[in-house]
TrEMBL record:
Gene3D superfamilies: RlpA-like domain. InterPro entries: RlpA-like_sf. This is RlpA-like protein double-psi beta-barrel domain-containing protein. It comes from the Eukaryota. Keywords: Signal. It comes from Psilocybe cyanescens. Residues 1-23 form the signal peptide.
Length: 132
């Protein structure tokens, strides 16, 4: 009995065209963000562990549309690592308007920011983050 190679070739061709998304690590400055009604269409509070990314990051995410509520980034989280290997994972709920020097900065709600430092510190430089 001779089996057809067509099904195997079809599977291999589909695998070769499937997009591969590789998580990219960024380094930026962390700031305190006071959430409200965010770009993802939900209202959040400072007591929830939520994050904001730059409009550059938000709008360049694969599958982004003109309607920010439908941006697939809204279903993702940031994995953030600061000094002393402290980490936190926060849901992406909003974006902030940026300039080229701040595109890698991220904002965290108060409860999440204070995981890394007191609010009086204002900002925390050199945190690493990745979209997961």
């Amino acid at each position: 009995m001779r089996l057809s190679q067509a099904p195997a070739l079809l599977v291999l061709s589909l695998i070769s065209i499937a997009p591969v998304v590789v998580a990219q690590t960024h380094i930026g400055t962390l700031f305190n963000f006071v959430p409200g009604l965010g770009a993802c269409g939900h209202t959040n509070t400072s007591q929830q562990i939520v994050a904001t990314v730059s409009n550059t990051t938000f709008n360049s995410f694969p599958g982004a549309t003109a309607n920010p509520n439908k941006n697939p980034i809204c279903g993702h989280r940031l994995l953030i690592k600061g000094a002393k290997n402290l980490t936190i994972t926060a849901q992406i709920v909003d974006y902030y308007k940026t300039n080229p020097t701040s595109a890698n900065n991220i904002g965290l709600s108060t409860v999440a920011f204070t995981h890394f430092a007191p609010l009086a510190d204002g900002v925390i430089a050199n945190v690493t983050w990745v979209i997961v």
